[in-house]
UniProtKB/TrEMBL annotation:
Protein name as annotated: Serine acetyltransferase
Annotated pathway: Amino-acid biosynthesis; L-cysteine biosynthesis; L-cysteine from L-serine: step 1/2
The keyword Phosphoprotein belongs to this UniProt entry's keyword annotation: no
UniProt xrefs under NCBIfam families: cysE, EPS_EpsC
One Gene Ontology biological process: cysteine biosynthetic process from serine
A single Gene Ontology CC term: cytoplasm
Classification via SUPFAM superfamilies: Trimeric LpxA-like enzymes
Pfam families reported for this sequence: Hexapep (PF00132), SATase_N (PF06426)
Taxon lineage: Bacteria, Pseudomonadati, Pseudomonadota, Betaproteobacteria, Burkholderiales
Species of origin: Variovorax paradoxus
One GO MF term attached to the UniProt entry: serine O-acetyltransferase activity
Protein backbone atom coordinates (compact mmCIF):
# COMPACT_ATOMS: atom_id res chain seq x y z
CA UNK A 1 0.00 0.00 0.00
CA UNK A 2 2.68 2.50 1.05
CA UNK A 3 4.91 1.55 -1.88
CA UNK A 4 2.04 2.33 -4.28
CA UNK A 5 1.43 5.67 -2.56
CA UNK A 6 5.10 6.54 -2.92
CA UNK A 7 4.95 5.58 -6.62
CA UNK A 8 1.90 7.79 -7.14
CA UNK A 9 3.60 10.75 -5.48
CA UNK A 10 6.84 10.17 -7.40
CA UNK A 11 5.08 10.10 -10.77
CA UNK A 12 3.45 13.47 -10.06
CA UNK A 13 6.75 15.02 -8.99
CA UNK A 14 8.36 13.74 -12.20
CA UNK A 15 5.63 14.94 -14.59
CA UNK A 16 4.48 18.20 -13.03
CA UNK A 17 7.15 20.94 -12.78
CA UNK A 18 4.81 22.91 -10.50
CA UNK A 19 4.93 20.20 -7.82
CA UNK A 20 7.58 21.18 -5.26
CA UNK A 21 7.31 18.54 -2.56
CA UNK A 22 5.68 15.25 -1.63
CA UNK A 23 3.78 17.04 1.15
CA UNK A 24 2.27 19.45 -1.38
CA UNK A 25 1.19 16.54 -3.59
CA UNK A 26 -0.37 14.63 -0.69
CA UNK A 27 -2.34 17.58 0.64
CA UNK A 28 -3.21 19.74 -2.36
CA UNK A 29 -3.47 17.57 -5.52
CA UNK A 30 -7.05 16.45 -6.26
CA UNK A 31 -5.83 13.95 -8.85
CA UNK A 32 -3.82 12.16 -6.17
CA UNK A 33 -6.78 12.20 -3.77
CA UNK A 34 -9.10 10.81 -6.45
CA UNK A 35 -6.76 7.90 -7.22
CA UNK A 36 -6.29 7.02 -3.54
CA UNK A 37 -10.04 7.12 -2.86
CA UNK A 38 -10.68 5.07 -5.99
CA UNK A 39 -8.48 2.28 -4.66
CA UNK A 40 -10.66 2.07 -1.56
CA UNK A 41 -13.82 2.20 -3.68
CA UNK A 42 -12.48 -0.47 -6.05
CA UNK A 43 -11.62 -2.75 -3.13
CA UNK A 44 -15.19 -2.47 -1.85
CA UNK A 45 -16.56 -3.07 -5.35
CA UNK A 46 -14.51 -6.21 -6.02
CA UNK A 47 -15.40 -7.67 -2.60
CA UNK A 48 -19.12 -7.32 -3.21
CA UNK A 49 -19.78 -4.09 -1.33
CA UNK A 50 -21.23 -2.30 -4.35
CA UNK A 51 -23.08 0.42 -2.46
CA UNK A 52 -20.01 1.18 -0.35
CA UNK A 53 -17.85 1.47 -3.48
CA UNK A 54 -20.32 3.83 -5.13
CA UNK A 55 -20.57 5.92 -1.96
CA UNK A 56 -16.79 6.40 -1.81
CA UNK A 57 -16.64 7.25 -5.53
CA UNK A 58 -19.42 9.83 -5.12
CA UNK A 59 -17.66 11.31 -2.10
CA UNK A 60 -14.45 11.54 -4.17
CA UNK A 61 -16.40 13.22 -6.96
CA UNK A 62 -17.81 15.79 -4.53
CA UNK A 63 -14.38 16.50 -3.01
CA UNK A 64 -12.19 16.46 -6.15
CA UNK A 65 -14.48 17.03 -9.15
CA UNK A 66 -13.19 13.75 -10.61
CA UNK A 67 -15.62 10.88 -11.13
CA UNK A 68 -14.11 7.39 -11.31
CA UNK A 69 -16.48 4.45 -11.25
CA UNK A 70 -15.41 1.94 -8.59
CA UNK A 71 -15.41 -0.82 -11.19
CA UNK A 72 -12.67 0.83 -13.28
CA UNK A 73 -9.23 -0.79 -13.19
CA UNK A 74 -6.29 1.56 -12.66
CA UNK A 75 -2.60 0.66 -12.68
CA UNK A 76 0.33 2.42 -11.06
CA UNK A 77 1.53 5.91 -11.86
CA UNK A 78 -1.74 7.46 -13.04
CA UNK A 79 -1.43 11.25 -12.99
CA UNK A 80 -4.67 13.21 -13.33
CA UNK A 81 -3.45 16.78 -13.76
CA UNK A 82 -5.91 19.42 -12.45
CA UNK A 83 -8.62 16.84 -13.07
CA UNK A 84 -11.83 18.85 -12.81
CA UNK A 85 -14.53 17.22 -14.92
CA UNK A 86 -12.70 13.93 -15.57
CA UNK A 87 -15.11 10.99 -15.94
CA UNK A 88 -13.86 7.38 -16.04
CA UNK A 89 -16.44 4.66 -16.75
CA UNK A 90 -17.04 1.34 -15.07
CA UNK A 91 -15.18 -0.93 -17.50
CA UNK A 92 -12.31 1.41 -18.29
CA UNK A 93 -8.84 -0.07 -17.88
CA UNK A 94 -5.89 2.24 -17.33
CA UNK A 95 -2.43 0.72 -17.38
CA UNK A 96 0.74 2.14 -15.83
CA UNK A 97 2.20 5.67 -16.15
CA UNK A 98 -0.83 7.22 -17.87
CA UNK A 99 -1.39 11.00 -17.81
CA UNK A 100 -4.89 12.49 -18.05
CA UNK A 101 -5.72 16.20 -18.12
CA UNK A 102 -8.88 18.02 -17.10
CA UNK A 103 -12.24 17.41 -18.71
CA UNK A 104 -11.38 13.98 -20.14
CA UNK A 105 -14.13 11.40 -20.60
CA UNK A 106 -13.48 7.67 -20.85
CA UNK A 107 -17.01 6.72 -21.80
CA UNK A 108 -19.05 4.14 -23.64
CA UNK A 109 -21.45 4.04 -26.56
CA UNK A 110 -23.10 0.70 -25.83
CA UNK A 111 -26.02 0.04 -23.46
CA UNK A 112 -25.43 -3.72 -23.28
CA UNK A 113 -24.88 -4.91 -19.74
CA UNK A 114 -21.71 -6.92 -19.22
CA UNK A 115 -20.15 -5.81 -22.51
CA UNK A 116 -16.81 -4.00 -22.64
CA UNK A 117 -18.23 -0.50 -23.00
CA UNK A 118 -15.29 1.67 -21.95
CA UNK A 119 -11.76 2.05 -23.38
CA UNK A 120 -8.44 0.57 -22.34
CA UNK A 121 -5.41 2.87 -22.13
CA UNK A 122 -2.01 1.24 -22.55
CA UNK A 123 1.19 2.10 -20.71
CA UNK A 124 2.37 5.69 -21.03
CA UNK A 125 -0.70 7.06 -22.81
CA UNK A 126 -1.27 10.83 -22.60
CA UNK A 127 -4.81 12.19 -22.97
CA UNK A 128 -5.14 15.95 -23.54
CA UNK A 129 -7.68 18.27 -21.94
CA UNK A 130 -11.36 17.83 -22.84
CA UNK A 131 -10.72 14.77 -24.99
CA UNK A 132 -13.40 12.05 -25.20
CA UNK A 133 -12.52 8.39 -25.76
CA UNK A 134 -15.76 6.52 -26.35
CA UNK A 135 -16.03 2.76 -26.77
CA UNK A 136 -14.57 -0.53 -25.67
CA UNK A 137 -11.38 -0.41 -27.76
CA UNK A 138 -7.69 0.01 -26.90
CA UNK A 139 -5.46 3.05 -27.08
CA UNK A 140 -2.02 1.52 -27.55
CA UNK A 141 1.01 2.04 -25.34
CA UNK A 142 2.72 5.39 -25.76
CA UNK A 143 -0.12 6.87 -27.82
CA UNK A 144 -1.28 10.47 -27.45
CA UNK A 145 -4.76 11.88 -27.70
CA UNK A 146 -4.89 15.59 -28.50
CA UNK A 147 -6.92 18.13 -26.57
CA UNK A 148 -10.57 18.17 -27.61
CA UNK A 149 -10.27 15.00 -29.70
CA UNK A 150 -13.23 12.62 -29.94
CA UNK A 151 -11.85 9.10 -30.37
CA UNK A 152 -14.24 6.32 -31.40
CA UNK A 153 -11.84 3.73 -32.82
CA UNK A 154 -8.60 2.05 -31.71
CA UNK A 155 -5.36 4.05 -31.67
CA UNK A 156 -2.17 2.12 -32.47
CA UNK A 157 0.75 2.15 -30.06
CA UNK A 158 2.87 5.28 -30.41
CA UNK A 159 0.38 7.06 -32.67
CA UNK A 160 -1.37 10.39 -32.15
CA UNK A 161 -5.14 11.00 -32.43
CA UNK A 162 -6.36 14.56 -33.07
CA UNK A 163 -9.59 16.25 -34.13
CA UNK A 164 -13.31 15.52 -34.08
CA UNK A 165 -13.80 12.85 -35.23
CA UNK A 166 -10.24 11.87 -34.36
CA UNK A 167 -7.75 11.23 -37.14
CA UNK A 168 -4.90 8.89 -36.32
CA UNK A 169 -1.39 10.03 -37.26
CA UNK A 170 1.01 7.11 -37.37
CA UNK A 171 4.29 7.70 -35.58
CA UNK A 172 6.35 6.11 -38.37
CA UNK A 173 4.78 8.26 -41.08
CA UNK A 174 5.32 11.41 -39.03
CA UNK A 175 8.96 10.51 -38.47
CA UNK A 176 9.54 9.88 -42.19
CA UNK A 177 7.94 13.20 -43.08
CA UNK A 178 10.07 15.08 -40.57
CA UNK A 179 13.22 13.38 -41.90
CA UNK A 180 12.35 14.40 -45.46
CA UNK A 181 11.58 17.94 -44.37
CA UNK A 182 14.88 18.37 -42.56
CA UNK A 183 16.79 17.02 -45.58
CA UNK A 184 15.12 19.59 -47.81
CA UNK A 185 15.80 22.41 -45.39
CA UNK A 186 12.17 23.13 -44.60
CA UNK A 187 9.81 21.74 -41.96
CA UNK A 188 6.12 22.51 -41.63
CA UNK A 189 6.44 21.70 -37.96
CA UNK A 190 8.66 24.73 -37.61
CA UNK A 191 5.57 26.81 -38.34
CA UNK A 192 2.92 24.83 -36.50
CA UNK A 193 2.46 21.36 -35.10
CA UNK A 194 -1.33 21.46 -34.97
CA UNK A 195 -3.81 20.17 -37.51
CA UNK A 196 -4.84 23.44 -39.19
CA UNK A 197 -5.30 23.61 -43.00
CA UNK A 198 -2.01 25.43 -43.59
CA UNK A 199 -0.09 22.76 -41.75
CA UNK A 200 -1.88 20.04 -43.71
CA UNK A 201 -1.07 21.77 -47.01
CA UNK A 202 2.61 22.07 -46.16
CA UNK A 203 2.79 18.43 -45.09
CA UNK A 204 1.21 17.49 -48.42
CA UNK A 205 3.78 19.56 -50.32
CA UNK A 206 6.65 17.91 -48.49
CA UNK A 207 5.24 14.41 -49.10
CA UNK A 208 4.72 15.24 -52.80
CA UNK A 209 8.23 16.66 -53.17
CA UNK A 210 9.67 13.59 -51.51
CA UNK A 211 7.81 11.31 -53.94
CA UNK A 212 9.00 13.31 -56.96
CA UNK A 213 12.59 13.15 -55.75
CA UNK A 214 12.32 9.37 -55.54
CA UNK A 215 10.82 9.08 -59.02
CA UNK A 216 13.56 11.28 -60.50
CA UNK A 217 16.20 9.07 -58.92
CA UNK A 218 14.61 6.00 -60.51
CA UNK A 219 14.50 7.72 -63.92
CA UNK A 220 18.18 8.64 -63.71
CA UNK A 221 19.04 5.04 -62.87
CA UNK A 222 17.11 3.82 -65.91
CA UNK A 223 18.77 6.41 -68.17
CA UNK A 224 22.24 5.48 -66.95
CA UNK A 225 21.54 1.79 -67.66
CA UNK A 226 20.40 2.57 -71.21
CA UNK A 227 23.38 4.79 -71.93
CA UNK A 228 25.81 2.13 -70.64
CA UNK A 229 24.83 -0.47 -73.30
CA UNK A 230 27.03 -0.54 -76.45
CA UNK A 231 25.27 0.55 -79.59
CA UNK A 232 22.63 2.48 -77.70
CA UNK A 233 22.41 6.05 -78.80
CA UNK A 234 23.16 8.68 -76.22
CA UNK A 235 19.83 9.49 -74.61
CA UNK A 236 21.07 11.61 -71.70
CA UNK A 237 20.16 15.26 -72.32
CA UNK A 238 23.07 17.60 -71.91
CA UNK A 239 21.09 20.23 -70.06
CA UNK A 240 19.40 17.89 -67.55
CA UNK A 241 19.15 19.33 -64.06
CA UNK A 242 21.31 17.16 -61.87
CA UNK A 243 21.16 19.26 -58.69
CA UNK A 244 18.19 19.67 -56.35
CA UNK A 245 16.84 23.16 -55.95
CA UNK A 246 14.32 23.24 -53.12
CA UNK A 247 13.78 26.93 -52.30
CA UNK A 248 12.81 26.72 -48.64
CA UNK A 249 13.20 30.45 -48.05
CA UNK A 250 10.58 31.31 -50.68
CA UNK A 251 8.15 28.80 -49.19
CA UNK A 252 8.65 30.33 -45.78
CA UNK A 253 7.93 33.82 -47.19
CA UNK A 254 4.74 32.55 -48.86
CA UNK A 255 3.23 31.34 -45.60
CA UNK A 256 4.29 34.42 -43.66
CA UNK A 257 6.66 34.97 -40.78
Amino acid sequence: MFSRLRADIRCILERDPAARSAWEVMTLYPGFHAVVLHRWAHACWTHGFKWGGRFISQFARWVTGIEIHPGATIGQGLFIDHGMGVVIGEMAEIHDNVTIYQGVTLGGTSLARGAKRHPTLGNGVIVGANASILGGFTVGAGARVGSGAVVTKPVPAGATAVGNPARVIEAAAAARREETASRMGFSAYGVTQNDDPLSQAMRGLIDNASGQEHQIALLWQAIEKLSAHPGTRDCVPGDAARDECFEADKLTQLIGK
